[in-house]
Design goal:
about 575 residues, mainly alpha, Na+/H+ antiporter like fold, Rossmann fold, 2 domains, 6-stranded parallel beta sheet, 26 helices, about 70% helix
Length: about 575
């Protein structure tokens, strides 16, 4: 490395890329996930093993921008109304998790001989989970929009919010605390001001900015503007002492309702993926293997105790909040590790003399090893869930979608809508593969003689195992607005030749699914509502005009859908009314 000279950057880049290219496919082939592959690659090339890269800190700081980009992309997928819907999980479940976990770890550290200041820092740092790891795993599994994914994300979001008061607490309890730090009230004022500035700029400045850039038709400038927005919002939060990732997340949420959302996500995604990979490699490089070996028993015991304690607490809190048993276990498994912000807290604690540098290094090693254990925890949780149903019934084992015969037609979701479609198609003589992710519904279908295979249609691997690559039609009949949209986007991208027929429950979701690439979308209650209105009109004595009336209604409804797809819900309705007013004047 010393002889790299002017090519040092390119040689380092080649080492990072080469390690990732070799390790990640290998670990994915072993079904251990890409995250563990990046960690192993980092540990191998880092300063504590082969030494190809002499220090990890520079790479870790640079790659933290990957976490920032990740939160921006997540914000793009989270519309403000969904964020508002999660407010109770964020400030209820999230607060309980941080408080309970922090108190338990504080008590354990104090009993092990840490002083009260170091115990507080250890409890606060280890109570946090890894946003980067958890979100990456949820995205890879296609679970980010599921009920358990919602709750896991809400907890992570509160943890990001908690970083500021935790750092303020560390500064307050430090032996030399005082004049070099802002007072708590001033720190909070800065935080509120930074959030307000980002929200106002995003609310009134971002859409006109991107609209102006889009008119230039310069794709590279659009990408540059997207990166500028992420960096500017991150720096604004960092200047106020907040998490940079939080600033990027807020900017993403503010752009989630704009027409630029998909293009922004497409432009940012390659940078996010590469930098997240670099982040995981840097985390692997930071593991001091010598220190871990010297304290192997203590470190491994601490890692196991941390994972066990967080799993138990998260499982109990999620169950108490109303999650099903299997969802509570998934939440507990995906958030059972320590987090990247723990490194920041332990570094600050060490610099402030709250804890000694040796303890800070050991805690950082514990966090890193707990991160490495996360994919294994997810595998263990999946196997645990597979061995039992929610009601612990003595039922026949669910048939996995891998066992399904390869039929030309797939129906995903065997609820009230999917059942009717399946019966009609089979009556005509078509071979149909039925998929559902609800064990009780599958058991009920079994009792009526319908063979339904267990699988989640929002995941591409499920559809691939069911034969989507060779299918001529996929019917999506799932009761999950965001999940259905994401499923359509993924199917259209991976299996471009297949016809996608989707059901939905309102016109706005219908527009989203059509934009995502569905060939035909039908509202579940639309035709039944028309049928009921026709029967009522017959009773009212209007039988002679029913067909013409319904035809006119259908014409206006189709016209409204076209206008709303082009101009948005409110503007589309206004233009329709204006159009019919002009017709009446003529």
């Amino acid at each position: 490395m010393a002889g790299m000279g002017e090519n040092e950057f390119l040689q380092a880049a080649a080492i990072y890329l080469g390690a990732g290219v070799v390790a990640v496919p290998l670990f994915k082939r072993m079904k251990l996930g890409s995250v563990l592959g990046y960690l192993a690659a980092g540990a191998l090339i880092g300063p504590h093993a082969l030494g190809f890269i002499p220090e990890a800190e520079t790479a870790l700081h640079a790659s933290e921008f990957g976490v920032v980009l990740l939160l921006f992309v997540i914000g793009l997928e989270l519309k403000p109304e969904r964020l508002w819907r999660l407010r109770m999980e964020i400030f209820g479940l999230g607060l309980c998790q941080v408080a309970v976990t922090g108190i338990v770890i504080f008590a354990a550290a104090w009993m092990l001989g840490f002083d009260w200041r170091a115990s507080i820092a250890a409890g606060a740092g280890l109570a946090l989970s890894s946003t980067a790891f958890a979100i990456q795993i949820l995205r890879e599994r296609g679970d980010l929009a599921t009920p358990y994914g919602d709750r896991a994300f809400a907890i992570l979001l509160f943890q990001d919010l908690a970083i500021v008061p935790i750092l303020a607490l560390i500064a307050f309890i430090a032996p030399a605390a005082g004049e070099s730090h802002d007072p708590t009230w001033l720190a909070m004022l800065k935080a509120v001001g930074a959030i307000g500035a980002v929200v106002l700029a995003g609310r009134y400045g971002l859409k006109p900015l991107f609209h102006m850039i889009a008119l230039t038709k310069a794709d590279e400038v659009f990408t540059a503007a997207a990166l500028l927005v992420v960096i500017a919002s991150a720096l604004a939060m960092d200047a106020a002492g907040l998490s940079m990732a939080m600033g990027a997340f807020i900017a993403g949420v503010l752009l989630a309702d704009t027409e630029f959302r998909h293009q922004l996500e497409t432009d940012i995604e390659p940078f996010r993926g590469l930098l997240m990979g670099l982040f995981f490699i840097a985390v692997g490089m930071s593991v001091d293997i010598g220190l871990v070996i010297d304290n192997a028993i203590a470190v491994l015991a601490a890692v196991l105790c941390l994972i066990a304690a967080k799993t138990a607490i998260l499982f109990a809190l999620a169950r108490g909040a109303g999650s099903k048993e299997r969802d509570a276990m998934r939440i507990a498994a995906v958030l059972s590790q320590g987090g990247e912000f723990g490194f920041v807290i332990f570094t600050v604690a060490s610099a402030s003399a709250v804890m000694d540098p040796g303890s800070a290094s050991l805690l950082a090693a514990i966090v890193t090893l707990s991160m490495a254990a996360t994919p294994v925890m997810m595998l263990a949780a999946t196997r645990w869930i597979a061995t039992r149903t929610e009601e612990n019934e003595e039922a026949q084992p669910l048939r996995n979608v891998k066992e399904a015969p390869k039929s030309p037609i797939l129906i995903a979701g065997f609820g009230r809508f999917g059942q009717v479609i399946g019966r009609i198609l089979r009556l005509r003589g078509y071979d149909v593969t039925l998929i559902d992710n609800n064990p009780r519904r599958i058991q009920v279908a079994d009792s009526f003689g319908s063979e339904v295979f267990f699988g989640d249609a929002r995941r591409l691997d499920t559809l691939a195992n069911a034969g989507a690559a060779d299918a001529k039609a996929i019917f999506l009949c799932i009761d999950d607005r965001d999940g259905a949209r994401q499923a359509v986007e993924r199917i259209r991208s991976r299996f471009p030749g297949v016809k996608i027929y989707a059901s939905t429950y309102d016109r706005f979701t219908m527009l989203e699914l059509e934009k995502a690439g569905a060939d035909i979308v039908e509202r579940e209650s639309f035709e039944s509502a028309i049928a009921l209105a026709k029967k009522a009109l017959e009773e009212f004595g209007d039988g002679a005009v029913i067909e013409d009336l319904v035809a006119e209604f259908r014409r206006r409804d189709q016209q409204l859908l076209r206008l709303q797809a082009e101009y948005g819900a409110r503007e589309g309705l206004r233009r329709l009314r204006e159009g019919f007013s002009l017709e009446k004047e003529r």
